[in-house]
Amino acid sequence: MSQSDVHVAALCGSLREGSYTRTALESVLSAAEDAGATTELLDLREYELPTFDADRDREAAGDAEVLAERVRDADTIVLGSPMYHGSYASPLKTAMDYCGFDEFEDKTVGLLAVSGGAFPVTALEHMRSVCRALNAWVIPHEAAIPNASAAVEDGEFVDPKLEERVQTLGRRAVQYAAIEPDPDSFESDQNVGAAGK
């Protein structure tokens, strides 16, 4: 796969109008485009996603099937979320609950988390755990944006080093899109809920 064949989709877990997460993901996608990929921002404000109910077919759950198809079509997925209560946001969790192995297995995934305070380490860890349970290959480089209101001003990063860290994630999303994944994780063997989605 050449870099011009790579399609990177970013899934934004923030619904806020002035979302720092969305701003950061747009920077990730811009860097991915500069590296030769096509890109797409999957803005969860544009999808009707009811709370996940395992008794409801995905086809009968609003836009869940459409979203899953967009995730499935990407070569690399970048997950972005604000940190809420030490984890990632519920809109992103709901979106991922409607996906399974068909969307994530053996796929490259990048992680980005934003917080109003200290580094959003636990949000990144929780997203990584979910991806591991789906047999995705998570890029070792991840982007963390602490103190977001001071880090971003008028849609631009204040600190060039932070901007570089975020844009590196976009470049890695293209670079590692066709990586040969490791063997299945032991977590995935227990993830029966993601089978047959």
TrEMBL record:
| Name under which the protein is recorded | NAD(P)H-dependent oxidoreductase
Q: Which InterPro entries match?
A: Flavoprotein-like_sf, FMN_Rdtase-like_dom, NAD(P)H-dep_reductase
Superkingdom of the source? Archaea
| Pfam families on file | FMN_red
- Tell me which GO cellular component terms the UniProt record holds: cytosol
Q: Which family does it belong to?
A: Belongs to the SsuE family. Isf subfamily.
State the taxonomy lineage.
Archaea, Methanobacteriati, Methanobacteriota, Stenosarchaea group, Halobacteria
The record's GO molecular-function terms, alphabetically, read: FMN binding; oxidoreductase activity
